[in-house]
Amino acid sequence: MVVVLNGVLADECPTSVRALLAAHPGYRDAAAQLLAAAPRVVGPQGLLYVAQRELAAAVPHDKNISIIGSDDATSCIIVVVRHSGSGAVSLAHLDGSGTAEAAAAMVARALQLAAGYPEGRLELQLVGGFTDPHRYSDELFANIMLSFHRLSEEIDLTLACCCELNTALGGGGAGGGGGAAPLVTGVGVDVRAGDLFPAAFPDRGPEQPLRAARTITGGPHSAQVLDIYDNAVGMLRIGPFNYDPLRGVDLWLEQSDEFILQHLSTTPNVEPPHFVHHIRTTLKFIQQHPFPAVTVFPDNRPHYYRRDEQTGCWVPMRF
């Protein structure tokens, strides 16, 4: 997929925001528009929340989903692929694991859902990451751009609110202190309108500790970016997957909040206030389920959730 920049096929793919702006300064204006928009706090009704190392896709006529989104992207980048003709949209929260495979899967899902629409183009939007001390976001931006550039279809980069374009000085989160901080860490997409906006999601849907456990453990499934939505039946799908037992989990849980923040975050100075609580909850889950293939997915089947028509929230399916 050759990346299209401002309507022109890119012979060489820019692998930094600085290089992108040097050739196409208009991307600064697009980022500024997003940064100027008022953030929205999105409730659980009609929401499909995509966690770290997950992806999902939806279409405007899906009665189960009105918003698809993700947040808490400090050094991570949220990637949106949208087909302008059909409105099909796929979204992923990428941290550097499984990037190339996720890019290919996002495009495949969007094109599959856009089948039958002769008009339209593929559009790419990137949000998140900042000029962090270790340049994690810069490396991730380069890998994402190259992953899309190496595919066979054309895709039009319409937004790159990343790295230096998403950096504020003098910020600070749970870790306190000053220095650089990301301006936008979460976005939602209105699936019907196609609009992208800054967002936060207090309710992130079911089984978050299980879903988060993959990112702090090892194992064959821990680095994959998993597709969490079954479009054919309109259900949220979790697993099945396994992860390696986390050695020393009891010792981790005995540590102070500050110790956990400093050692289990790549960007401790800019994490949100709920970061440590989220990590502790995940560690407790791993402690209780060191072998999820045995205790969580004993039948090796996904956990399915359907949208409750009265509450608009996800409820478990019982088979």
TrEMBL record:
Any one GO cellular component localisation term in the record: nucleus
InterPro entries with a match to the protein in the record: NTAN1
Gene Ontology terms, MF aspect: protein-N-terminal asparagine amidohydrolase activity
Pfam families tied to this protein: N_Asn_amidohyd
GO biological process terms, semicolon-separated: ubiquitin-dependent protein catabolic process
Coiled-coil parts of chain: none
Signal sequence interval, chain numbering: none
Full protein name: Protein N-terminal asparagine amidohydrolase
Lineage of the organism: Eukaryota, Metazoa, Ecdysozoa, Arthropoda, Hexapoda
